Amino acid sequence: MTQYRLGIDTGGTFTDATLIDESTGKVSIAKVPSTPADPAIGFLNAIRRITAEQHVDAEAITYVVHGTTVATNAVIEGNVAETGFLTTEGFRDMLEIARQIRPSLYDLRFEKLRPLVPRNRSLGVPERLAADGSVLQALDESALVAAAQRLREEGVESIALCFLHSYGNPVHERRAGAILAEVFPEAMISLSSDVAPEFREYFRASTTVINAAVRPVVARYLGRIEEELRGAGFDAELLVMQSSGGVFTFEAASEKPVFMVESGPAAGVMAATWLGESLGFSNVLSFDMGGTTAKAGLVQNGRPVISRDYEVGAMAQPGGTKARGYPIRTPVIDLVEIGAGGGSIAWVDSGGGLRVGPRSAGADPGPASYGQGGTEPTITDANLVLGRIDPGYFLGGEVPLDLEKAQHAIQTRCAGPLGLDLHVAANGILDIANAAMSHALRLVSVQRGIDPRDFVLVGFGGAGPLHANELARDAGIGTTLIPMSPGTTSALGLLVTDLQHDFPATVGRKTDGVDPAELEQTFQDLAAKGRAALSRDGVANEAARLEQLADMRYAGQSFELPVTVSGGVFNESVLRELVDRFHAAHLQAYGFNAPAEPVEIVNVRVTAIGTIGKPSLARLTTPPASAQPKGERPVWFAQTGGFSPTPIYDRYTIGEGAILTGPAIVEEIDSTTVILPGYAARVDAYGNLMIAQGERQ
Amino acid sequence: MSATGVDPITFEVVRNALTEVTEMMSLALRRSAYSTNIKTRADFSCAVFDEHLNPVAQSFSQANHLGTLVEMVPIMVAEYGEDNLRPGDVLLGNDPYRGGAHLNDILVLSPVFFGEDRIGWVANLAHHVDVGGGAPVSIGAFREVYQEGVVIPPVKLVSAGEIVPDVFSLVLSQVRARRETAGDFRAQLAANITGAQRFQALAERYGVEEIRAYIAELIAYTDRRTTAEIARLPHGVYSAEGLLDTDGFTDDPVTLAATITIDDAGVHFDMAGSDPQRRAPVNSTHSQTFSCCAYVLKCLIDPDIPVNAGFYRHVRMTAPLGTVVNAKHPGPVVGGWETNSRLTDVMLKALAPALPELVPAGTKGMICHAGFGGTDPRSGEFYCFLETLAGGYGGRQGLDGPDAVQAHGQNTENAPVEETELNYPVRILRYELVDDSEGAGQWRGGLGLRRDYHFPDHAASFTVLSDRDKWGPHGLFGGLAGERASYILNPNGEAHRLGSKATVELQSGDVVRYETCGGGGYGPPEERDPGLVLRDVREGKVSKERAEETYRVAINTPDWTIDDAATAALRGERA
Question: What is the model's pTM?
Answer without folding.
Answer: 0.88
